[in-house]
Write a structure and sequence with these properties.
single chain, alpha+beta, 287 residues, 25% strand, seven-stranded antiparallel β-sheet, 32% helix
């Protein structure tokens, strides 16, 4: 790590360093979390997949919204980024009914205040993507909230902006991914404000950690879907009967290898770049 970098924080996956008054260095580790618990077993190259995919999407969506990326470093897992004042929202867009949205729908017929038609099935595509914000929990699980609560947190005008931008990003990426055989069932974003108060996309974008990626040729509503994301690990942990509190379980070799293979396949399908080529020259994803 450069001498000028000062460690200022740790997330579930990323280490955060300050380079100067305006720039941060984000280093994506190979840690993996499920149900908001970091597991003791790492997934080789996972951090590079997240970094490369995020950079790929940042380069292609900057006309929709500015983002924090300044530079990719040669290790493939580190990015120099603009400092932002982060908004206290997880900005979730759902194009399909799954995960916590499916659970909320089963219980109430709605998701974050969006009343949905009766009779929908697990993994059904929604008539239109919906914006379903959540709180950013410092500890424990994020909490799905409705539009009114979200607007109270960031103000109505800013809420309207993040909703519009989030839906635009999702529509762009989901159309792009579908042409490459991947359905983006849902995704989440984090936004911040630059010193001029402009909205900027931060953290990561359309990765297997922040999104559900389904193979289009195996999609079948009414059941859980195979995926190119961390659902493979979630499913393993669910089978253990683990109570979803720390410490998390160790992952066996086949789950580690299967997870890495899914992350790398998502990377290669979406970017059109061989993962080995990215390891040799990370900036290839910016072209």
């Amino acid at each position: 790590m450069p001498e000028a970098a000062t460690h200022v924080g740790s997330g579930k996956v990323r280490e955060l360093y300050e380079l100067d008054d305006d720039r941060l260095l984000l280093v994506a580790s190979d840690r993996i979390s499920t149900f908001d618990v970091v597991l003791p077993t790492e997934i080789p190259d996972k951090g590079r997949v997240l970094t490369g995919l995020s950079a790929f999407w940042f380069a292609r969506t900057r006309e929709l919204v500015p983002n924090h990326l300044l530079a990719l470093r040669p290790d493939g897992r580190s990015t120099e980024c603009r400092k932002l004042e982060m908004l206290p929202l997880e900005c979730v867009v759902r194009g399909y009914l799954t995960g916590s949205g499916w659970k909320d729908y089963q219980a109430t017929g709605s998701v974050c205040g969006h009343v949905l038609d009766e009779g929908l099935r697990d993994s059904d595509q929604l008539p239109e993507p919906i914006f379903t914000p959540a709180t950013k929990a410092q500890e424990g699980h994020d909490e799905n909230i409705d539009r009114e609560r979200a607007a109270e947190l960031v103000g109505q005008e800013r809420f309207d902006e993040v909703e519009r931008v989030s839906l635009s990003l999702y529509r762009f990426a989901s159309e792009y991914a579908a042409e490459r055989g991947i359905l983006i069932a849902d995704t989440k974003f984090e936004f911040g404000l630059d010193p001029e108060g402009r909205l900027v996309l931060g953290d990561e974008a359309f990765t297997p950690d922040s999104s559900r990626f389904w193979p289009a040729d195996e999609y079948e509503p009414g059941r859980a879907q195979p995926s190119f994301d961390k659902q493979f690990v979630r499913d393993y942990c669910e089978r253990l009967g683990w109570e979803k509190t720390a410490p998390g379980p160790e992952l066996p070799e086949d789950v580690v290898a299967g997870t890495r293979a899914r992350y790398v396949e998502a990377f290669e399908r979406l970017t059109g770049v061989a993962f080995d080529a990215y390891l040799a020259d990370p900036e290839v994803v910016l072209a």
